[in-house]
Each structure stands twice: as C-alpha cells, then as structure tokens.
Amino acid sequence: QVQLVESGGGLVQAGGSLRLSCAASGRTFNDNAMGWFRQTPGKERDFVAHISAGGSTSYADSVLGRFTISRDNAKNTVYLQMNSLKPDDTAVYYCAVSRYQLGSYSLGAYNYWGQGTQVTVSS
Asked: What residue ranges of the chain have pLDDT lower than 70?
C-alpha cells in the first residue's frame, strides 16, 4: 500500500524559512516525477513545484527564486525548501507522485497524494 507522509509544516513569520519533507512508502518512485501543490479554503489546489525522475525542476511563478524542490531517491523522499516566506504562501501543502517520468502542472498527472501539511506565515 502506497503512502505519502508530509512533515515540516508550521507557523513562521514573514521572511522566514521552512523545509517540507514527503516520505513515500509501499514502493519506490525513482522513475516517477514528484510534485508539491498547495490549497487554501474555498480555492483550487495549485501547482507549486515539480521534479522529474531525472532531476529537472519547474516552479510556479509565485515561488520562483524562493522555493527549491529536491529529491533523495535512496530515502524515497521529496523536499520543498521554502525561503523568504510571505503571508500569501499560507496554505495546506500536498506532495504527490506522478504517473510519468516528466513533471506536470496538472493535478491529473498525479495518482498518489499525501494528507497535507499546514503552513502558516504571519505578517
């Protein structure tokens, strides 16, 4: 049974940093892209970043230059380093595993999802 468990969320002041982790179990995902998305109440789940099986990355414009996605295949884990956080970054953050080797902005490309971790940035 595949399980994705996020951790590292919390409350931080604007300008601060957090590092999210997402540990996968049940199978390895070395040949799958992985991604991070975020969602606020009443809104759609939005793309944040993805990393391909080969390690190439892509980011939403709103986080480019502030967030960094990485993966450790030996640990079956994907990370999201978030720096210079803003109140607009407040959301529940979800990690996901894609069906494909290449990353995607589309939720439909991802077939495994974590339960989410809350990130709150105070002004």
From this structure: none
